């Protein structure tokens, strides 16, 4: 059996199991017809996969570490990209409310594929013997920083569009459970980004890690153009009252400044944005650095080491001698499984235990993050560290799905969800930008990185963010949107 197929089978089995479990759960009966449910599936499924492959075109940068640039240079490039992503929401959130989700998911896919193609061309031109020479790497940093920032600007449209499209199709009482199911598709993006991209680098040349996601995004842009509609009414079905903050608001659209001020004055929205600042900081502190940690502490082989071993005269013996670690080698698959589990569990608990409140779920999962970040200290020098950070991924993706993906719909409503997603997801990536800046400076230097005990600074900068996130979650424990009509 091909290696990629054997890695895919556990995810297929897990997806099948979750579909069976979710299919047997009692559903909220809102009177939707079978025809409506089929059309809704045809609407959200391609958008979900588009967003998953946007992840592949966003996190593909990490697998270039130690091939195109070192980890400090990666942190600099990633900082400018995530900073751009965060501030882009101030523009793209309101634009999405005006243009609609369909147009903006197309802008996102097409813009990202063009930016990825440009990065692929730049990297291809700098390669010598499969890697960029050390003396040329510094010169690539400003060019890749600019192109990655452009990529992230267009990527930010996707995050708003995915919520904007679904806000018109799902009632408040359906959104928690659906947010978990939709998290399955987003979690697949982590699998594509980490395992598929690693596979591409090992089997081909590194520029293809940019070209292949661009080609896939072109296919899904075409599918979105054909299938996606902004509202049920545009697809030939009846629009319905969603029970969110826009319920009963049938008046004219208010001026942008007035809407933005109204949203910013909402204490629940601002608190959720602050919680998500911590989520962005923590999520990427885990996702972007664990594989680098494993490679630099000699627990696992990097893609460059694997490629060199494959080219050795006795390739079989050289490959067999390489260090292996299960979590490192299946990082995308395990994070996909963790994200699926965290998203589904968080969604089901929110709707069925906490009455569609999102704050209690965030509080429980932030408590898991605190315990996990404290356990990292003793686990750094043991084989348990990989499994600790996988569980932490489960918790933080569950929080992100509940707040950015679901609470933004609740408190923004169908009319203003773009602005609310802009505020909340903008804070997610401002947190990510600060994380990149901090970790790029506190992680051990090349002379010290081989000793796992020198990586104590990694969990040390996570603990405060986890504590703050939990404290803030208690402030929105009972927060609910207030519809205009009862």
Descriptive overview:
With about 475 residues, the protein is mostly helical. The chain has one domain (about 45-235, about 255-475): MFS general substrate transporter like domains (Growth Hormone, Chain: A, Up-down Bundle), CATH 1.20.1250. It has 18 helices and no strands. The protein is globular. The model has no long low-confidence stretch (mean pLDDT about 80).
Write the layout of secondary structure elements.
Blueprint lengths: L2 H22 L9 H26 L11 H29 L1 H26 L7 H34 L4 H32 L4 H20 L28 H9 L2 H21 L2 H7 L6 H8 L4 H6 L5 H4 L1 H22 L6 H21 L5 H58 L14 H4 L2 H11 L13
State the main characteristics.
486 residues; Growth Hormone, Chain: A; 18 helices
A few lines on this structure:
The chain has 486 residues and is mainly alpha-helical. Helices cover 74% and strands 0% of the residues. Helix 3 runs parallel beside helix 5 (134-167) and helix 9 (267-287) runs antiparallel to helix 18.
Secondary-structure content class: mainly alpha
Q: What is the helix tally? A: 18
Name of the CATH class: Mainly Alpha
- What is the number of E strands? 0
- List the uncertain runs: none
Radius of gyration: 22 Å
Percent helix range: over 70%
Global geometry: globular
Percentage of residues in DSSP E strands: under 5%
Give me the CATH superfamily.
Answer: MFS general substrate transporter like domains
């Amino acid at each position: 059996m091909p290696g990629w197929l054997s890695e895919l089978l556990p995810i297929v089995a897990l997806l099948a199991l979750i579909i069976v479990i979710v299919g047997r759960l009692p559903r909220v009966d809102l009177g939707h017809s079978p025809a409506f449910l089929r059309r809704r599936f045809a609407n959200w499924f391609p958008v979900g996969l588009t967003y998953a492959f946007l992840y592949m075109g966003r996190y593909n940068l990490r697998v270039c570490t130690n091939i195109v640039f070192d980890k400090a240079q990666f942190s600099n490039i990633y900082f400018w990209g995530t900073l751009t992503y965060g501030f882009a929401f101030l523009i793209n959130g309101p634009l999405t409310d005006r243009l609609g989700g369909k147009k903006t998911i197309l802008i996102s896919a097409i813009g990202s594929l063009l930016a990825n193609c440009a990065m692929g061309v730049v990297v291809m031109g700098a390669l010598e013997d499969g890697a960029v020479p050390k003396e040329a790497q510094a010169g690539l940093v400003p060019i890749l920083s600019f192109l990655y920032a452009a990529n992230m600007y267009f990527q930010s449209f996707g995050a708003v569009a995915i919520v904007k499209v679904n806000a018109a199709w799902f009632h408040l009482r359906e959104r928690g459970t659906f947010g978990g199911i939709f998290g399955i598709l987003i979690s697949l993006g982590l699998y594509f980004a980490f395992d598929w991209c690693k596979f591409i680098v090992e089997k081909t040349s590194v520029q293809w890690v940019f070209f292949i996601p661009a080609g896939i995004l072109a296919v899904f842009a075409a599918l979105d153009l054909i299938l996606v509609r902004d509202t049920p009414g545009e697809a030939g079905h009846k629009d319905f009252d969603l029970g969110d903050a826009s319920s009963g608001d049938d008046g004219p659209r208010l001026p942008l400044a007035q809407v933005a001020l109204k949203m910013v004055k909402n204490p629940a929205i601002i608190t959720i944005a602050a919680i998500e600042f911590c989520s962005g900081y923590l999520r990427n502190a885990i996702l972007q650095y664990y594989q680098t940690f494993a490679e630099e502490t000699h627990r696992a082989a990097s893609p460059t080491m694997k490629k060199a071993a494959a080219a050795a005269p006795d390739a079989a013996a050289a490959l067999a001698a390489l260090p292996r670690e299960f979590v490192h080698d299946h990082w995308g698959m395990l994070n996909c499984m963790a994200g699926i589990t965290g998203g589904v569990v968080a969604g089901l608990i929110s709707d069925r235990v906490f009455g569609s409140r999102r704050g209690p779920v965030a509080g429980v999962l932030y408590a898991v993050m605190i315990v996990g970040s404290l356990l990292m200290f003793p686990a750094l020098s043991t084989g348990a560290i990989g499994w600790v950070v996988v569980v932490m991924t489960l918790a933080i993706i569950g929080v992100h799905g509940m707040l950015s993906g679901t609470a933004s719909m609740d408190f923004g409503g169908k009319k203003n969800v773009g602005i609310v997603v802009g505020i909340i997801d903008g804070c997610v990536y401002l947190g990510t930008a600060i994380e990149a800046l901090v970790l790029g400076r506190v992680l051990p230097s090349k002379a010290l990185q081989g000793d796992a005990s020198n990586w104590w600074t990694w969990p040390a900068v996570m603990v405060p963010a986890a504590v703050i996130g939990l404290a803030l979650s208690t402030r929105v424990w009972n927060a609910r949107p207030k519809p205009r009509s009862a």
